[in-house]
Structures are given as C-alpha cells and as structure tokens.
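Reviewer 2 asked us to include a model.

Predict the structure of this chain.
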Amino acid sequence: MHSSIEVESQIERKVAKPSHVNSLKFLGQFPEELMEFARDRNALFIDYKFIDLPGVWQHKTIPMAHFSEDVFENGEGFDGSSIRGFQSIEESDMLLIPDAKSAFVDPFAKDPTISITCDVSMPGKIKERYSKDPRFVAQKAEQYLRESGISDVSYWGPELEFFMFDAIKYHHGQLGTGYDVYTSESHLTSVDSGDANKGNMGHKIRPKEGYFPVAPADTQNDIRGDMVKTLEATGIYVETQHHEVAFAQAEIDMRFDSLTSMADKVMLYKYVIKNEARKNGKTVTFMPKPIFGDNGSGMHVHQSLWKHGKNQFFDATGYAELSEMAMHYIGGLLEHADSLLAFCAPTTNSYKRLVPGYEAPVNIAFSQRNRSAAIRVPMYSQGEKNAKSKRIEFRPPDCAANPYLALAAMLMAGLDGVQRKIDPVAKGYGPWDKNIYHLTGEDKQKIKSVPGSLDASLKALESDHSYLLKGGVFTKDLINQWISYKTEAEVDPVRIRPHPYEMFLYYDV
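Predicted model (structure tokens):
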C-alpha cells in the first residue's frame, strides 16, 4: 500500500540492483547476443508473449531449432482475428516482432524456455506497427514526451495489490449464478484449509485488520517470499512485500522504471505472482473487488517527470514541495479523471472498489499524505536532499488495467495539464488536507466524485479524448474499439443478468 520509491539518477539506477538479480534475465541488447544466451542455457523452446487489447498476456511457442535472427526483422505470424480487440477475420494475418532486450528464462516452463515480449505489426513489404498494439501506444507516449521538450523521461511506480485464496468456485447460467471464495485467513472461515479433521486454529483476520499482521495470522509470508525471489531472478527489483488490509490480500512493490519498461514489468509481475501461487497450491486474482465488505485491490501509480537528470516535480518553496509543473500535471490528471478511468479502472468490478469507506480514492481532489483523495503527494522524506523522491500518486487505478494503455493515458492527461497550465487550485481540486469523508455541508458539495460505473467512464471517454490523440499516441480507432469492446463484452452482459442479491431483495415482491 505504501511504496518507499526513492528515485535516483539514471546513472545510479543502473547499478542499484541486488546481487542475485538477473539469474534468469537476459542482459544483452542484440539478437546475436540473445541467440548465445539461449544456447548457453540449452533452451529447447522460444516463447513469444504479447498483450491483447483488454490487457492479458498471450503467447506462441516454437522449438529452438526453428528460431533464427531473421524473426527480429521478418516477424512471426499469427491470427489477429482470434485475439480480443484486434482484427476482423478478413484482415487477420499479423506479425509478432520480438524485443530481444525483454528476454528471460521462463521459471515455470518444464523444459528450458526463453520468453520474449513482442511488438505487433501488420505484414507487407514495409512493415507497419499495429495502431491497436498497446505496447506501441506506450512507446508513442514516451516519444511524444521527448518531442514535447517538457521532459526526457517519465518514471512510474505502480503498487499492485492482489488476493491469494485457497480456492475459488464460480458459475453462471440461465438458471443460476454464484461464486464461493475459500481462504483460511478469513474470520468467516470455520475450518482451516477446508479440512474438517484439522480444526480451526483460531488466528483469523477480521475486516480491515490485515495490514502488517505477523504469523500465524499472516499465513502467506513464505509464499510472498518465493514470489519475490522469482521476480528478482527475472530482473524485477523488489522494494518490499507485506500483507494488505483485507484477509488473504497482499502487496509486493517494484522499483520504479520508465513507462514502457514498467508496463512490461507489470505483465511479467502478474505472470510470476499467479504461477508462484499455483505452485504453492493457491490461486491469485488481481480482480479489484472479489470480497464484499472489506478493502479492494488497487494499483496506486507513483509518477514524475525528469529532464537532464533532474526531477521536474520538485520545488522546495511549493505546496508539498511540488513545482508549478507538477501542479499543472495534477490539474491534467484531475481534469480528465472521468475519462482516464475508462483505461485505469476498466472493469464493472472496479466500481465496487471505488466506493467510500474502504480507503478508496473516490474524491477528485489532491492533498499531501491524504489517502482519501484521488491524488496524494507522499511526504515520507522532505527537503533538498530528498528532491529525487518527489512524485505524485494517482490512486484510482486498479490492477485490471492494461498497463500500457493506463500509464500512457495518465501521461497524456498530465502533459495536457502542463501544456494548458491547468491550475488544480483554481479548479477547486484542493488541496484538501483533511479527511474528505468527514466533510459536511458546502465543503462536501465542492468535491466531485469519480464515476460510479464503467459505463459512465466509457461515456466520459467518448466525449473527452482529444488529449489522448495528441502526437498520434492513441488513435480514434483504438478508442472506439475500446469503448465498443468494453460495452459489448462487459457492461451489457453484466447489466442484463439477474444478480444473486436481487433474489434476496425482490423474490417475494
């Protein structure tokens, strides 16, 4: 929940790695170096990974014997019509272009396998990057930032939270729907691990009491330790891991990185967490709100802009030591918050988390230290010597987001604020250095809330997206496809189905 990201200079970052990192990570840059890396590890397979539009990794595996350097130029073919949010069937031939720098040895494959993240292109004599490839959107956002002259690089530190259950059962059909969650950590569980002969050991986590308990209440520390070791072996620097507020909830925090690289790491992170849990007989979900009546899982995103090795967000004389640029960046995020959430809180379930009372950042406001505002300014360290750590934290996003699209959208909103000099104070967004949930009367009416549903966020995106189109970063085609997919595949199917609780409310009317 509370990352201790301490931003360093680019030079310092290169050496700030734990001694055992990179045991599985490819450290080279070029295809010929990767070929040698694969041979040295007796790799039998090459696994091409790429992301679909909603934000889930897909993959295709080939034998090492068929792998050559030509693929980095010519690509590997696949059927784009079978990938969610991509092409129609009459234009389905597409190419995967692997990025050698992303390679690592897959820790979960039975046989030695090299995993590579890929870009998506259209076939032809002159290959064209696919406009709806989320990774391309992230890369264009970084290019737009550099060309704007505002900054050289943006740094990102998303905090991913997740639930780790013993088991999950769910079903839906015409004659019934429902789900059951099993975890020995809950105060509601009468028997540990579902074993009636074992008995109840009594150490349970009550609602909102799961933040930082020790064993035996925290039953998952060793598994989180396994997750950390695997993350670091695949090249992800981990800052901390701990139990979260709800029972069976956890957080493992990564060191910050630049935009596309961090989005790559988010996908690898989720892959590692899910598979390490499975190895330990558990199941992990990044669903924002799987449990009623307790905290949901968010993805609070720390962010800052840097130029010539200097943090552009720091000013010792500003509010919370923020520069004018940082304030305008905040103004952009909050001005576009409604439409941003279409990418940052992109599921119907997201809005079951974004409700008052569970540390949920439902208020479109900013403040130092205040977790009830959409934007918090961390104040763990202060003064000139801590200028490198100055950042802002956008709290509404969750882990269901496609990280490439969400981070790119946040950057574009912030840059729009900088370019238009949007003053968050003049706009009435704060600062609110008090518990916003306890406000009454006129003060309470001044603060706008985030949208209450995915449908509302999608409608906001439909009317407010010009800031995303700057520099061709997002395209109108991608935005239309996103709105269409989310409406038809998620909003409408949830809206038209009877909810189990409706039986309780209305069966006897």
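The two ends are 44 Å apart (CA to CA). Residues 1-16, 196-200 have pLDDT under 50 and may be disordered. We have added this to the supplementary material.
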